[in-house]
Amino acid sequence: DIDVVTVATPNHWHALATIWACQAGKDVYVEKPGTHSIAEGHSMIAAAKKYQRIVQHGVQLRSSEAIQEAVAKLKAGEIGDVYMGRTTIFKWRPALEAFPASEAPPKTLDYNLWVGPGKYRPYSRRHVHYNWHWTWDFGNGEIGNQGVHETDMLQWGLGVNLPTKIAALGGNYLWKDHRETPEVLTALCEFGKEKKFAEIAVRFWISNNEAQGSISNLFYGSEGYLEINGYESYQFYMGRNKTKGAAGKAPTKHYENFIKAVRSRKTSDQNGPVETAHSSSALAHVANVAFRRGSVLEFDPVKEQFINDAEANKLLRDTYRKGFEVPAPDKV
Questions:
Q1: Alpha-carbon gap, residue 244 to 276, rounded angstroms
Q2: Inter-helix orientation angle 147-158/65-75, to 10°
């Protein structure tokens, strides 16, 4: 009698749970990030198509009528030629508690199942519950957490997918805890084919706002700029004097949009189709690898691999424990 499965597990389970649900004949709402590694996205897309399932990715901005209106105006030339986007992900994250590196799991948790396809490491409260986000084996850092909402918005607004060149710097400068992923991260992306540029900025602690909100997207054009705040409002600013232009606000109805598509059986009704689970998450993955490599990397957005950097490509894909992998698209 179950029609729909919602996946809100740790990141490393998202793809496999989605694929299994599709194989079982269920429609899926999968939370962001849709994937834990770049290769998983193609398998999810293949499963959704093969089993004719509705798979909706949790990128809620896409189901606000106001944000839809803003993007339409942007693409119609409201601020002239758009050349750059900037994403700010400024969100308070406190220091992590100093739990033991290894301890016995509680009797209420099947820890082996929790790890599932992920790389095995001994149980610790350092990486279960919400703390998985700050551990490479199970999470993708803040850029792959809150950030996927914003990378999706960035791609949507600029009309781009994956970059041709990327660099990222950052680290852990405030808290002296066991966090593996960076507290502070700035990624610079060049989209060669579209001739667009983007900056993604992450920081944790108490911060000024660089737009009207600390979670925002900014798009810059020859005639002005567009500011998108949170999930439901936008404001255009025109000319060098930054005169206020068109604005709007409307709540997001993303799960409602998913149910509409479940009922109609039309993927065309979806605002956040399975393809966004791949693309928006993949941008976060590429940025994380650039940070971990510490250098400017060239990327092939068609082959979806780094150019002349075997170590970077290994980091991009090597996320599973041996013998328990997400199936390749042709094996779904």
A1: 31
A2: 40
